[in-house]
Amino acid sequence: MTQILVTGANGEIGHALIRKLASEGASIVALDLHDIDATLSGFCAESYRGDVRDAEVLGEIGRHHRFSAIYHMASLLSTSGERDPELAHEVNVNGSFNIMKLARAQSGLRGERTKLIFTSSIAVYGLRAGDLRTRPLTEREFLTPCTMYGINKLYVEQMGRYFSEYYKIREGEVPIDFRCLRFPGLISSETLPSGGTTDYGPEMLHAAAQGKPYRCFVRESTRLPFMVMDDAVRALTRLAGAPRSALRHQVYNVTSFSVTAGEIKALIETSFPQADIQFEVSANRQAIVDSWPENVDDSPARAEWGWAPEYSFERAFRDLLIPKVMARYS
Ligand code: SER
Questions:
Q1: Among 37, 57, 218, 327, which is least packed by CB within 10 angstroms?
Q2: Helix (H, G, I), strand (E, B), or coil: what is residue 93?
Q3: Which residues of 254-266 are buried (b: 16+ CB within 10 A; e: fewer)?
């Protein structure tokens, strides 16, 4: 029986994705640096504690399973990457290279292309002072990232494209089927990210629901694209399910809404009028978001595999996030 491997299983996306894949009947193998969360273990056929940098663990996993798809999310996020660029490179690049080798081996063993679904980010863009941040960027512009994380993600996108489309050295090699999404900031009612620079969105919400003060580390006027986790997971499984023949690209932007930190605060305050949210800008983290676009153009995803977000800004907060965090912390 073929299975699906999920790396970074305990992470934000992992949590939601595992539940969704399990609800569709998939047999899931989970990999995480830590023991799999108790809330997830029931959804997984098997779980491994291990590091994507450890080729031996991955070899072991590959010997015991046959994967039709691998969702690779294990990663150090952008703020963490700036604190330790060397570690970011090891995890985000060397770890991803190991996962790519696993996908290649699986394609060979199965005689069929194993899908490698990779989560990239708006961090691959690098705008500088004077560049117009408001125009929605296509997948091909301003690929001059200013963070180690962005550089790592961009390199893995290119490596995936290479092994998917160009590597034909070995006679009879079955290529991997690489598919990648560039996500905007993600907001979940269930989990909080750690070490990212879009974290202020979800952190503001969870702090307000818990009655805790929150000091937002970017300016009130900072505008970035965001998406709720439900839409993010739908995008991943929809891209994975698209027929290869419909896909003309390997890397797709996806987005839902573009909002300022002040607009997020104002919407949260309509449900949590006592919320104590103030702005205390961190120059380093502000510089990171200032290099990212305010919006991205996701028309190839819409045209080729029918991407469309379900949640607008208001709907996301009023119908989904706020009721769920209220229930969670009440
Ligand atoms: N959310 C990520 C971060 O802030 C960007 O992909 O690092």
A1: 327
A2: helix
A3: bbbbbbbbbebbe
Q: Two tokens at 305?
A: 């595999």
Q: Which of 125-139, 169-183, 211-225 has the lowest mean pLDDT?
A: 169-183
With a 6 A CB cut-off, is 197 part of the ligand 1 pocket?
yes
8-31 pLDDT, tens per residue? 999 999 999 999 999 999 999 999
Q: Is 124 in the pocket of ligand 1 (CB under 6 A)?
A: no
* Residue 120 in tokens: 């990239």
Ligand 1 in reach of 77 Cβ (< 6 A): yes
Whether 43 contacts 19, CB under 8 Å: yes
Residue 189 phi/psi, 5-degree rounding, is: -85, -15
The answer to whether 264 touches 193, Cβ cutoff 8 Å, is no
Tell me which amino acid residue 59 is.
G
Rounded distance, CA 166 to CA 43, Å?
36
pTM of structure: 0.97
Mutate to test the pocket of ligand 1, among 12, 76, 78 (most ligand atoms within 8 A of CB): 78
Domains in the chain: ranges and CATH:
3-184+229-253 (3.40.50.720), 186-227+257-293+312-329 (3.90.25)
Token digits of residue 152: 């790592």
